[in-house]
Design goal:
Elements: H1 2-12, E1 21-26, E2 34-41, E3 45-50, E4 59-66, H2 68-71, E5 76-92, E6 95-111
Antiparallel strand pairs: 1-2, 1-4, 2-3, 3-6, 4-5, 5-6
């Protein structure tokens, strides 16, 4: 019964089509960070494009930057940890990139400047 509720919640998570810079790091290995671009994001997951090959099932740490235009204030960073659930090879504009769908398991929001009281 709990599985049905979880699936319903996952489907109702609102998706936003946002193209934002994202920095991805492999969760377990010490690897250099890679830059990517989000295509859409929700409270439960993210879909981004990256030049590197990423394995389905691997864990990732990633940082998104929300510009001040979106947050109506200061720039905000979202640091998240998640797991890759789908990888697709994309050939957009003659470049070969990977489309990566990941579920967000936990996240922290960091403001660039302290909020004014």
């Amino acid at each position: 019964m709990g599985d049905n509720l979880e699936m319903t919640e996952r489907r109702t998570a609102r998706r936003y089509e946002l193209s934002l810079p994202v920095v991805i790091r492999g969760g377990q290995q010490e690897v250099d960070p890679h830059n990517g671009q989000t295509r859409d994001i929700s409270t439960r997951g993210v879909y981004f494009l990256i030049d590197e090959d990423v394995a389905e099932g691997s864990e990732l740490d990633f940082t998104l930057t929300l510009p001040a235009e979106i947050t109506q204030g200061t720039e905000v960073f979202v640091r998240a940890h998640g797991k890759v659930v789908r990888v697709e090879r994309k050939n957009d504009d003659g470049t070969s990139r990977m489309g990566v769908a990941a579920v967000i398991e936990k996240y922290d929001i960091i403001r660039a400047e302290p909020a004014q009281v």
